Amino acid sequence: EKIMDQRRKEFRVRQYLDAYREFGQHTASWDSDALLMIESWINSHYGTSTNLPSSADLSNKLAAQAGCDDPLVLTVAASSAIELHERIQRLERALDAFGQSRYRAYPKFYATVYLASGLASGSPRITELDASALKHFERALADGSLQAKDEEELAEILINGWGAEFFGRNADAVCRLVRKAKSYPWLALVLQGENEVKLAWKARGSGAGSSVSREGWKGFFEHLGKGRAAFTEAWTLQSDRPLASASMIQIEMGGSGSAAEQMRTWFDRATTSQIDYPGAWTRMRWGLRPRWSGSHEAMLALGIQAVKTGRFDTDVPRKFFDCVSDVESELELERGEHIYGRSDIWPNIKEMFEGYIAEPSQESKRNDWRSTYAAVAYLAGKYGVAREQLEAMNWKPVRKNLSGWGVDLSLMPLKVATLTGKSADLAKRAEASYARGNLVEAIKLYTDMNASAQGLEQEFSRSRLAALKEEEVLAKGEWIDLLPAVDNDPNWEMFDVKAHRLPDGAIEVESGPTGHAFYSRTRVGAEFEVTGEFEVVRTSTKDFQAGIIMGYPDGRDSDWFAFRMKRNAVEGDLASFSRSWSKRQVARQVQPCPAAG
Predict the structure, then answer these.
(1) pTM, whole model, 2 decimals?
(2) DSSP string, 260-284
(3) What's the DSSP call for residue 408?
(4) Count H helices, E strands: the chain?
(5) With contact defined as beta carbons under 8 Å apart, do 464 and 439 qualify?
(6) What is the pLDDT of residues 205-262, one digit of tens each?
(7) Distance of CA 264 to CAs 218, 249, 279, 293, 568, Å?
(8) CA neighbor of 419 nearest in space, from 466, 452, 384
(9) For residue range 408-424, what is the model confidence (pLDDT) as tens digits?
(10) Where are the alpha helices (DSSP H) in 332-423?
């Protein structure tokens, strides 16, 4: 993948950096910032360490700059935008300006497809944008934007990357244009194969096998046969490219009793071309689920094989963790439950993490590996191992690595320190009372601990007490002040935010570059009432949103909710109830209060 990233980088340098140097107008005051932004954007995505300024910061600066109307610059600025509606605005500006520019067709194609991806599913505008994108794509195949050497990169974009949804909606037209161009024979074959797979599943339907009609099965196997022929021919033409081999794995999944052997043959061919090709591992993992050609044991065996490669300079050994996650999904565990401590799993997890930590090429990511190892060890009940890793980082794990586990790990370092420290016996009893919801007993035990503990152990007891005392008030049916009581309140977790308690009880918040959020560890329960207000003091774009998070706001899943008041140029003024920060929302337009104008 590191080698492939270099190819991807060279492709973007040609499409954006070189194109801007050749066709951009370099007389504007913001020209040097534009060059920096494009270079920083490319480097941030393709594994090149750099001391360049943040592309997001530069994009905000350029988008707000009077007279910055270069469409390629606006397109890159949109790709660096954190907020969806700001991204849409920048892309609209870019598309308006491309008509008067000298740029070739590829960046126009990208901007058009990227804009469609930001619109709500079912938006009538998507059909219009797709028609325009197809015209840009046809021109790009002929105007020098795209070249024969770009086949592999184009296939990844259209099948596995940002263009996949566009290709899914327009597969017949895209395949026709690539065949017509004649300079892309391998690309034409893999796109045809991918289209046949989609048509096969469309004919079959997504229901259980018993629900599929005779005609459905007929269409399914006819299209799979055509897909098999196309991918096999593509592999024969370019056996050093892994995509066709990886795609054959999913075709063989629906085959006869020898499906597992055939899957393995194509998996070996794909990983011989590129040992860490993501598509090969993903499709093999899926094909080894019990519903297809495998079992839980086979799923784990694939992961163990990945660890045994010893290729800790690649992502391959980490595939074992993906296999474990797959088994967990098959077991339909409760959210936050994990099987990491199982005797057939933990030794391989240990070997995997310690291999990465010892690998010289992973030195820059060592604390990431240690942080995740500590989290997994904690969830496996291996508190001693978790402590070793946390001590190696001076008890300061990488924060982002503590999310995505289905459970709040913000206090994990403090809890590990306590469960492996002098207060361990008292802490175990206190945690058991906390888990049972025995508030009176838990408060007494944590109060005793707080009186005798020091350092991290005392910090842990204070955090638990702060939450429990609020829970005690709620249990009486009374109101609590659901805001941090002081700066750095031990009961609140902050994300990219500076929050200060004012004398009148309000909280003054300064948002970070990706917005802000902060949540209380007080357990509220499923039925609650909230009242409050907010005031927008200043905003750089006149857009804002503010509201309440419900549930544990894990950035890596969407199993939580948000009620927000929003203002932006795309949606207007509205109240929104959404699943996480996604576009899956129920929204109503609102009118400004007359008194406030």
Answers:
(1) 0.91
(2) HHHHHHHHHHHHHH-TT-HHHHHHH
(3) -
(4) 25, 8
(5) no
(6) 878 778 889 999 999 999 999 999 999 999 999 999 999 999 999 999 866 667 889 9
(7) 26, 8, 14, 11, 51
(8) 384
(9) 999 999 999 999 999 99
(10) 346-358, 366-379, 383-392, 412-419
